[in-house]
Amino acid sequence: MPVIVASDLDRTLIYSAAALALTMPDARAPRLLCVEVHESRPLSYLTETAAQLLTELGDEALFVPTTTRTRKQYQRINLPGPPPTYAICANGGHLLVDGVSDRDWHARVQARLADECAPLSEIQDHLLRTADPVWVRKHRTAEDLFAYLVVERELLREEWVKELGEWAENRGWTVSLQGRKIYAVPKPLTKSAAMREVARRSGADLTLAAGDSLLDADLLLAADLGWRPGHGELAEASWTAPGVRALPERGVLAGERVLREFLRTVRSR
């Protein structure tokens, strides 16, 4: 039986320059490998040690990249190791099989959202009316499934985020603040549901997961074992749950530690 390793990517396994948290003296900083280029510029990194660990993991378990990114954003990433058979994009809205979105899965997701949540257009309208142009830099929708704002964090009113969360809650949506992005996501649109589908198809008898944000909580709860870094929304809220381990590492070294934990667990079966 295969082991599924479903891991969030941004700020869990891969890191932008701003999120690296290299607090050690420069001479002791780890060597980094760039795994994403956008508009001809390097964007995301992991340590070279993490790259080797991920390659080993891909040979020993069913590694499933699991992200809120759109398919296009995900496909910019060039991870080391064997190409994943499955990948979860758009927070579970798309299940990629050998790089291609599974139509049946996507249709099931869309049908559930239509039944259980306010429409995306209503959420978009609310964001456009209430978000202050002083701190909003971009309004975006992702795969016609959810919406997000790119903001200036130092100007953002935390009270507005709280009010948005309360408003969205009554409409079947949830709100998550991650770095410079505020996400509004339908509650049934989850990484955990897609992970369970991969487990069903593959016959896996053990699921492992890692993530740093509120949108990863359902994934961690659904897995048999989970880990979260010492940074991110979950760490800031001191969030934990049975079977979920809070790691002390922050930044890119947390990604390395997560991969060590995955490999240790896979090899100890």
Helix content: 25-40%
Mean pLDDT: 96
**Tally the helices: what do you get?**
9
Structural class: alpha/beta
Radius of gyration: 18 Å
Would you list the SSEs in sequence order as H and E?
EEEHEHEEEHHEEHEEHEHEHEH
**Number of DSSP E strands:** 14
Report strand order across the widest sheet: 4-1-12-13-14
**C-alpha end-to-end distance:** 11 Å
What is the 3D form?
globular
Largest sheet: 5 strands, parallel
Question: How do the helices and strands line up, and which of them pair or pack?
Answer:
Elements: E1 3-7, E2 32-38, E3 41-47, H1 48-60, E4 62-65, H2 71-74, E5 86-89, E6 94-97, E7 100-101, H3 103-116, H4 120-130, E8 136-142, E9 146-151, H5 158-169, E10 173-178, E11 181-186, H6 191-202, E12 206-210, H7 217-222, E13 225-228, H8 233-236, E14 244-246, H9 252-267
Parallel strand pairs: 1-4, 1-12, 12-13, 13-14
Antiparallel strand pairs: 2-3, 5-6, 6-7, 8-9, 9-11, 10-11
Summarize the structure.
This protein is α/β, with parallel strands linked by helices and 269 residues long.
